[in-house]
């Protein structure tokens, strides 16, 4: 059971893992030991997630989410399989925590009169500067 928040818990059955060979330099075991982890999580069909969290997680996942709504996290930062496994689970939990955070709705406001006046004054000043550049001195 992966405890994400006090409300969201994901059972082990929803987190299939695959072990693959880790990319990069490795030493003696580089072509023999499969230490990297591919952790998959079916976001679209998971009963463990509330609907609003599911939508935000699909958006947050970006290119890690395939067309079927399966989020895949690859972890190969460490040399051991166990540390990579923990790393992948922690990264998934952190992503779900971010998705669980409901963004504060933006309240539309209008610009103040003073800010409008300052903006227009700055535009006029900028126009004057550009106009001064284009004027050529007369040949007297």
Automatic annotation (TrEMBL):
A Pfam match: RF-1
Prokaryotic-type class I peptide chain release factors domain boundaries: 21-37
One GO MF term attached to the UniProt entry: peptidyl-tRNA hydrolase activity
Alphabetical GO biological process terms: rescue of stalled ribosome
Signal peptide range in chain numbering: none
Region span, Disordered: 96-140
Key words of the record: Hydrolase
Cited SUPFAM superfamilies: Peptidyl-tRNA hydrolase domain-like (SSF110916)
Stretches with biased composition (Basic residues): 121-140
Protein name (database record): Aminoacyl-tRNA hydrolase
E.C. code: 3.1.1.29
InterPro entries: Pep_chain_release_fac_I
Source organism: Thiorhodococcus minor
